[in-house]
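Posting here for the record, re: zinc ion.
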Amino acid sequence: MNPIDRLTEAFEKFPGIGPRQARRFVQYLLSAAPNLRADMAEQIKALGANTSQCTECYRWFVGKSGLCAVCGNSSRDAATLFVIEKDADIDNVERSGYKGRYFVLGGTIPLGSEEPVKHIRLRELKKRIAENGLTEIILGLSATTEGDHTRQLLQETLKDTGLTISSLGRGLSTGSELEYADPDTIASALNSRN
Ligand SMILES: [Zn+2]
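Prediction output follows.
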């Protein structure tokens, strides 16, 4: 396969990117200065060298290994675990003033999939929950059909843990993703969790 098609295919695998957008990215790179391409290739390589995945919440951070800044901060409330879909949600929830812990699920579970979904860290979540100290799990999933479906499956899976399982209450409007909700909206959704 030629390099244009190969790179287009690679971009198509990015979340939310379709064939047309992928082609536009490649077109942009073709018309860009050669040092921009070299620079980007270098940055992509560096991503792997200087980052680690947190062993507790599974977010990616810049550092050697172990815990991210949030999980490594012992002054945070260890009793509350906020389950979110993706890394970007953490930055947004942090601005709402939340002081507990996090767990990055890895996405949502598509409708109709009964099988364990590969990118979803369900096993890791159960393991994390089995550790002592937690009293409440907050499910902070998107107000979308897949988000609702994932919430129901998690509520079902976690009901025997003996922990309080709550979900973000009113305030997060239908169709919205946590990543794009403003901090005040998240704070009020947290206060009205049920
Ligand atoms: Zn962490």
